[in-house]
Amino acid sequence: MPDPTRLSINQICVLPQWSLAQAIEGLARHSVPAISVWREKLHEIGLAEARRRIDGTGLAVSGLCFAGLISSADPAEAAKARDDVRRAIDEAAGIDAACLVFLSGGVDARDKDLAATRARVLDGLAQLEDHARGAGVVIAIEPLHPMACVTRSVLTTLKLANDWCDALGAEDVFGITVDAYVTWWDPELPQQIARAGKRIRAFHVSDWLTDTQDLRLDRGMPGDGVIELPAIRRMVEAAGYSGHVEVEIMSARNWWKRDPDDVVRTIKQRFVTEV
Ligand code: ZN
Fold first, then answer.
1. What is the CATH number of the domain that holds 170?
2. Ligand 1 midpoint to CA 205 (Å)
3. Any alpha helices (H) in 58-188, and if so which ranges?
4. What's the domain count of the chain?
5. C-alpha 45 – ligand 1 centre gap (Å)
């Protein structure tokens, strides 16, 4: 059983139901120790107001989601995307987030060369190093399930995330987000989590439903699916990670339609029994 003080709830779990102000108030009311903030909701109220409200509750911020998508083959587009990441870095600093979650971006239909696309993202990350260091923000690169290679992430395995961190060579700035939902299937998971070690800056959990209907927006509540979450949590802890365990459920057909207070209550219960 994880230490309940390590629970973080990603705002995405109640994204349609609650504004950021409501999520901050709601999680604090349920004595949840930490929140992970979604940028589109942050922009609705602005950085200063978000900071004021978060400070007022004492909530920790386990992450800011998300920035990236810098894989474009068009140099102007890629530069624009990197500028947006720089803005997100400043936002992460502004709310004292433990990390900025980074998604690489998918394969561009104008350039089907996957190896070149990956090289472009790695080069783009290197260009963000100075800005992140200046802001004191860790960029936690998150590999996604290979099915998201077109839409979201040419970074498809934890091994590749480790390889990129080796290549970047700036462990103070670049880390890794381990998300159980997108990595649980990987036969190399134990070795690559151990290899990641102190690079792990965020740990996300949700469950893979046996009848999943949407690869992005049909995540399950811990305990409702097939992922052996406690085993993965123990691997991440054995690698040296002692930060927040963040429940991150995008669920268009179920949890996004529920009473948000019930969602939070259920997460708190399942965190103790299923994570
Ligand atoms: Zn995640």
1. 3.20.20.150
2. 7
3. 75-94, 114-135, 158-168, 180-183
4. 1
5. 23
Residue type, 203: F
Residue range 69-121, pLDDT digits in tens: 999 999 999 999 999 999 999 999 999 999 999 999 999 888 999 999 999 99
What is the model's pLDDT at position 172?
97
Q: Residue 85's domain spans which residues?
A: 4-270
Average pLDDT taken over every residue of the chain: 97
Q: Is the dihedral of CA 197, 200, 203, 209 positive or negative?
A: negative
- Confirm whether pTM is higher than 0.85: yes
- Give 90 Cα–ligand 1 centroid separation in angstroms: 20
Is the per-residue pLDDT at 1 higher than 90?
no
List Cα–Cα distances, 111 to 106, 116, 137, 150, in angstroms: 11, 8, 31, 12
- 268 Cα: distance to centroid of ligand 1 (angstroms): 18
CA of 177 to the centre of ligand 1 (A): 7
Ligand 1 centroid to residue 30 C-alpha, Å: 22
Number of continuous H segments (helices) and E segments (strands) in the chain: 10, 8
